[in-house]
Write a structure and sequence with these properties.
Structural class: alpha/beta
Order of helices and strands: EHEHEHEHEHEHEHHHEEEEEEEHHE
Radius of gyration: 20 Å
Shape: globular
CATH architecture of the largest domain: 2-Layer Sandwich
Number of helices: 11
Bound molecules: NADPH dihydro-nicotinamide-adenine-dinucleotide phosphate
Number of strands: 15
Oligomer: single chain
Helix content: 25-40%
Distance between the termini: 38 Å
């Protein structure tokens, strides 16, 4: 922590999400500062330094791994391709820096486990960037379910789809490369939202997975899952059924149906939420004012770092999703029910 009560960030990987969403959110947050930009390209790093005034250092990945500018930041924000999250977490842990890692935590269970281990060995905080956990409507929905408002939860129904244009219309992008994305794209990239948000709302974890997936558009030749349908049995006795596609109209929703009512979030995952509750044949709109979801979660992270309190969603929480994701791909490939 710093003398003036903010957490100073180094941001790693200067893609669209970092530049368009995270840097503005860090600049907006009272508890965050941003001082360092880390990129594969010195020019790109320097452009970001020029563009955003508080950033004073532009360094390369190699320089980062060698400890460059390490006095200038307290925490790192990892936003590189999925299979390139671990190396930055390892270096940050060595340097004693807190870690904010984008979802999914890593591209394989083994690598995600390694991230949990390095953070714990060096005793640095690790948060996986599930922005729905600090979103007000989702938190409200969680309280309503906990308070028994919908009775006993029975089924959860999720969907997250987006168009080719949304994921970037470039067939050479890392999301379509199994070495960088992981087992596939639709579950790792967007199916993870209904999966993780249902886990958060129900306070439950998956026990088994069944799934179907396919790729038909040439764009998805190297990954098995342009679209996916998966069913999970959860340890609270509920079933979660969800779909995800990277080549459909943008549509996001999550519905939790209980014995006495229903919680319905739509839209759910693309930075905007509306929340409705149905009970006794009456539906009420419980939507909360829209917030900048990245500002919320980064501010929460900084608050926990500054106060020294425990942080979540932590690495163990993120690791469960990576296990479930692997099980979903295995279930689709084997056409069997996979135990997680
Ligand atoms: P982009 O492709 O836009 O950016 C990724 C950046 O990573 C690149 O710009 C590049 O930055 C860096 N990079 C390092 N090595 C490579 C490599 N071998 N190939 C390609 N890029 C590389 O991806 P996104 O920003 O969309 O995604 C990054 C991460 O953020 C993913 O894990 C994704 O799941 C997550 N994400 C989370 C979102 C959320 O809502 N929470 C939304 C979007 C993404 P440079 O040129 O500076 O080296």
């Amino acid at each position: 922590t710093t003398a003036h009560g903010t957490v100073r960030f180094a941001v790693i990987g200067l893609g669209w999400w970092t530049v368009d969403r995270t840097i503005p959110a860090l600049l907006d947050s009272e508890l965050c500062d941003i001082t360092v930009a880390v990129s594969g390209s010195t020019d790109k790093a320097n452009d970001v330094v020029d563009r955003f005034e508080p950033i004073t250092h532009g360094i390369t990945y190699d320089e980062f791994h060698h400890g460059a500018a390490s006095d200038a930041y307290d925490a790192i924000y990892i936003c590189s391709p999925n299979a390139l999250h671990l190396p930055y977490a390892e270096t940050a842990a060595d340097l004693g820096k807190a870690i904010f890692c984008e979802k999914p935590m890593e591209a394989s269970v083994e690598r995600a486990e390694r991230m949990v281990d390095v953070a714990s060995d060096d005793d640095v905080p690790l948060l996986v960037g599930y922005r729905m956990h600090t979103e007000p409507a989702i938190r409200r929905a969680r309280e309503l379910i906990r308070d028994g408002t919908i009775g006993r939860p029975v089924v959860a129904l999720g969907n997250n789809t987006q168009s080719l244009i949304d994921i970037n219309d470039d067939p050479d992008q890392w999301r379509l490369n199994p070495d960088l994305v992981g087992s596939g794209v639709s579950v790792t990239d967007i199916g993870i939202y209904p999966l993780n948000t249902a886990r958060f709302l129900l306070d439950a974890d998956p026990l088994t997975a069944q799934a179907q997936m396919d790729s038909t558009h040439e764009f998805f030749a190297d990954v098995p899952d342009e679209r996916t349908a998966f069913t999970l049995s959860m340890d609270d006795g509920t079933f979660l059924a969800s779909t995800a596609s990277q080549n459909a109209q943008s549509s996001t929703s999550l519905r939790i149906v209980g014995t006495d009512g229903e919680i319905y979030v739509e839209p759910a995952f693309h930075m905007e939420t509306e929340l409705r509750l149905t009970r006794d044949e009456t539906t009420v709109d419980l939507s909360t004012p829209q917030v900048d979801q990245m500002t919320e979660i980064l501010t929460y992270f900084a608050d926990r770092i500054l106060s020294g309190e425990a942080i979540g969603p932590d690495g163990d929480h993120g690791l469960v999703d990576v296990r479930v994701i692997e099980a979903i791909y295995e279930a689709a490939e084997s056409d069997q029910t996979v135990t997680i």
